[in-house]
Write a structure and sequence with these properties.
alpha+beta; about 20% strand
């Protein structure tokens, strides 16, 4: 489900990292990470929210297979997706916050709109 960025990791490690980031984003509503990770998380999170807008068994199984926490998956179907029912995409916002102190990586906050 990953897009075009490899993020300097093997496929399994990259998918595990993105699954965790998407889960935390849906759980907390906002996370702080690097800009490139935020852009990858945005594409996956928006696809999952779009899928969750249609509440079918197949869609639930698909979402449950990607999100690592069961309560976050149910929150996606019961609270998050209905909130965006009249909206066609654009569920997240990325705000750049400047370089990280240690390695000067460009940091950003990604949040649900």
């Amino acid at each position: 489900m990953s897009g075009k960025r490899k993020l300097g990791r093997a496929t399994s490690a990259r998918l595990a990292m993105l699954r965790g980031l998407v889960t935390f984003l849906l759980e907390n509503g906002r996370i702080e990470t690097t800009v490139t990770r935020a852009k990858e998380v945005r594409s996956i999170a928006e696809k999952l929210i779009t899928i969750a807008k249609t509440d079918t068994l197949a869609n639930k199984r698909y979402v449950f297979s990607f999100i690592t926490k069961e309560d976050v998956s149910s929150k996606l179907f019961k609270e998050i997706a209905p909130k965006y029912e009249g909206r066609n995409g654009g569920y997240t916002r990325i705000i750049k916050i400047g370089p990280r102190r240690g390695d000067a990586a460009e940091m950003a906050i990604i949040e649900l709109v």
